[in-house]
Predict the structure of EVE domain-containing protein.
Amino acid sequence: MNYWLMKTEPDECSINDIAKAGEQGVLWDGVRNYQARNFMREMTLGDQVLIYHSSCKTIGIAGIAEVCAAAFPDPMQFDSNSPYFDAKASPEKPRWDAIRLRFVAKFSNVISLEALKKVNPLAGNPLVKKGNRLSVIPFSAEEFTAVKALND
DNA sequence: GCCAACGTTGGC
DNA sequence: GCCAACGTTGGC
């Protein structure tokens, strides 16, 4: 079992949207960063994922989801009508991956970035570093537990 | 809306 | 392989 954090703009896909998707979960596509993609390829079924709302009014971790489909080629890279289209990708040589995420829990309150910066095990985590742009971040069990504890 | 930080691209 | 230019991210 691995732990991760994934960023999303809640206008695009919020923790509520994931909850509404039910058992089959949501398609997590559009990741166009190699480091983030490589992390997605390491994900296995049942991995726990903290859902982080960015670029919005209430920034922070909103809940937990789990991986319900491991990495597969992101269909949007082949769709010339999609903003995620990549002319350099082909079905024979896909470049980008997607996963699926299923709802696990919504926190009673969004755990704010300000609060996260005060969590000891998170010191040094890219999430709380200025200028960080990584949208998929691996978490240790200790980091995950410390975040989850803030919801209790 | 601003702007610092960052990743990617492309000329050389 | 370097690095300037550019586009994007993301907090404020």
User: Anything to note?
Assistant: The mean pLDDT of chain A is 95.
